[in-house]
Design goal:
The structure is a homodimer of 312-residue chains. Helix content of chain A is 23%, strand content 25%. With 312 residues, chain A is α/β, with parallel strands linked by helices. A nine-stranded mixed beta sheet of chain A has the order 3-2-4-7-5-6-8-13-12. A three-stranded antiparallel beta sheet of chain A has the order 9-10-11, with no helix packed on it. In chain A, helix 1 crosses helix 6 and helix 5 packs across helix 6.
């Protein structure tokens, strides 16, 4: 177990919603906070609301030309502008100028990015990796203070791959993936949970900035290890759907032989993996075009060192 | 109670899916039936599967330029072609040539049109009006044979208004509105229910064609009587969402004073109508742009005469 990590206070914080324009909790909350910005203020930090993808939010679609939340790679951000750039590439570069540049000393201290999923993910906290103590302590703070939400930590980036999400522009980033909620719909229950977890995260930042020490801890994380496509016929069309016994069972252990797909003629298809694994993002609407029926995650326990503000 | 209605047998029947391209049960079923058309065959009828809006289904959106299921008015269908016609107007005219023309002797005998909703509508059977004995007996047959689905009959057209839905092209039409299901998602449970109700409807047509007599009956219908928009601030933005106590309560009696909306600051807004009413299509994603938070329906009991095939 390493010793205490000391960090500079976090003063420049952004709350992004509408990164996907049909994930309505974030769109709705950010529009609300743009009018009532004092609700994002704490003693030591005033978070800035950002409507990440105005054009997609206006149209009520995930994206206008390209998935914005895959556009923040170093390759895309550093490429010269081109008249053929999709809207979202231009917008990613703009956000990178506003809140970054990514990887620089000038970058924002933290971006909180708000998402919804049609999957039964509950309150899911997303980090890119497990090495950032601020991000991990923010998750722990939320888990400790909102145990009835049963928040889980999902780690999206595989080792050796570049990051691509909007929150990677800042020094620290946290995604909030709340579901189930249909695209294009605001549900009051999900909205209230999202508002509460963001308020809780700002409280955490405020405590950190004021000098509170956060002790070391261990926690379970769910780390992306693969993905499963739908069965398809020779023409590429989906030939079987998520099995009723898998539907809505995100974060429930899946064993080899458990049923995962069902054809229209009633044939059940079992999971053929070699070991038990945790399925997540089961039947997420936006992943059909990405050829993902669900994502596989391994449950990995990690140790996080104590955290405290740097005192110069 | 009127006497028996005698009708010609129904031989030309179409099953339409993808009228809205992101309502996936119908898209999925029609694509399946296009490959396995024998599943739509009965002794006396072979129903034809039709992907109503191929372009919207391909893109996974409700519509490409205009809501197809509002394009089948006599005004639109009879207007001369124009180079400015939206894709869906052209497609409506094409479907009208294929399965109509609407109101003519050449028109198809029946169109069954498959829809999904994000609202908790369960298995909802939609007729335009209550005067068509074939449509009403089809509903009764489904209700009698699938009581565990608790199918309800919704009447969409107000008196004196023109029809606009795809099934109005045929002599008889029936819409199937199954939910809750997010846009862009296929859920196995909803898919199985939709497949079963369509199979049941084809059985009904087959029995009718073969001479079975269907006795007169009375049934409850839910008839559209109005709609309620979300509360909005002066800039037109939605300022309150569906109240948790109303969410998912489609077809449950709403009383004056019951809470219907909730603001982000926790203020509850009651229903200010003068009499109890049945809310339906509560929080349907596609109705946000139509400025509909939910639809109001009156429960009206109707008498339906006996039905039998014409014997010449």
């Amino acid at each position: 177990m390493p010793g205490t990590v000391y960090v500079d206070p976090l003063h420049r914080v952004a709350v992004a919603g509408g990164t996907h324009g049909n994930e309505m909790s974030g769109v709705f909350l950010v529009k609300h906070w743009l009018k009532h910005s004092s609700q994002l203020e704490r003693d030591t930090v005033s978070a800035v609301p950002l409507l990440s993808n105005p054009k997609a939010s206006e149209k009520g679609v995930r994206y206008y030309e390209k998935d914005l939340n895959r556009c923040f790679t170093l390759d895309i951000l550093s490429a010269p502008d081109s008249p053929d750039d999709p809207y979202e590439v231009l917008r990613a570069k703009e956000i990178n100028r506003l809140l970054g540049p990514r990887g620089s000393a000038n970058a924002y201290d933290m971006i909180l990015d708000l998402h919804n999923t049609t999957s039964n993910m509950g309150v899911c906290l997303i980090v890119s990796r497990v090495h950032n103590a601020v991000e991990m302590h923010a998750c722990q703070y939320i888990q400790t203070h909102l145990p009835h939400y049963n928040p889980r930590i999902y780690v999206y980036a595989k080792p050796g791959t570049d990051l691509y999400s909007v929150d990677s522009v800042a020094k620290c980033g946290l995604g909030f993936e709340l579901g189930p909620q249909p695209q294009g719909v605001v549900r009051a229950d999900i909205l209230q949970k999202m508002k509460t977890v963001i308020e809780m995260t700002l409280d955490f930042i405020n405590h950190l900035n004021k000098g509170m020490e956060f002790p070391a801890f261990e926690t379970d994380t769910y780390q992306c290890s693969g993905q499963v496509d739908f069965p398809r016929s020779s023409d590429g069309e989906i030939s079987a759907v998520i099995h009723p016994s898998l539907q809505d069972k995100d974060f429930s252990l899946l064993h080899p032989g458990d049923l995962i797909f069902l054809t229209l003629d009633g044939q059940s298809i079992p999971y053929s993996g070699e070991k038990p694994i945790y399925p997540v993002f089961i039947n997420e609407a936006a992943y059909y075009e990405k050829k993902i029926a669900f994502i596989l995650a391994e449950k990995i326990r990690v140790s996080v060192p104590a955290l405290r503000r740097q005192t110069h």
